[in-house]
Amino acid sequence: MARISSARPSAEPSSPEQHDRRRRILRAAARIGGEKSLERVQMHEVAKEAGVAIGTLYRYFPSKVHLFTGVMAAQVDRLREQVHAPAPGTSPEDAVADLLVQASRYLMAQPVLSASMLHASNTAHVATVPDTMHIDNTFRDILLRAVGIDDPTVQDVTLVRLVMQCWYGVLQSSLNGRASMADVESDIRLACRLLLAPRSNAPRSKKRRA
């Protein structure tokens, strides 16, 4: 089982060279993590693949939990860049469902890496792994944009958070072999319809005249 080897948070890069080293580490971890489970990935092989000293790796990522939570944060950033406006006539619920189905298909195409990312991010504590907050905030903003809400209410944020948590659970079930991709897509679409119905920009039903 992966564990956090240090209570300290990871260092944040400040110079272009440091940002480049961090990106190389994340790319190396993603490549190795695509072939080996989280338990089998060794930090020294990630450092070697990335061309950095092992001390540099541990400075940015004190544990494999930090490392693969960082990989997931990079994947979420990539998703944000690839999100396009929904086709005309698409309901907000369907727009969110379409986005999550697309993300699910992408993640299921790399099941070993996806299992490691989900395990790491679910294990990570926000106090020592800042990428957890980055994942939550970025993913929330992606879904709010898809649902067409620029100024979310507290309830909107809560509903989107519930959609995210439901999606994580459905995806984990599929990675564990408990649900087919068809089940995943069906469950995601149903969850979006049910959970996003009370959102602030939902059409209001007309009151009956007395």
Automatic annotation (TrEMBL):
Residues 19-79 form the HTH tetR-type domain. Coiled coil: none annotated. PROSITE patterns: HTH_TETR_2 (PS50977). GO terms for molecular function: DNA-binding transcription factor activity; transcription cis-regulatory region binding. Residues 1-16 have a biased composition (Low complexity). Residues 1-22 are annotated as: Disordered. Gene3D superfamilies: Tetracycline Repressor, domain 2. Residues 42-61 bind DNA. It comes from the Bacteria. This is TetR/AcrR family transcriptional regulator.
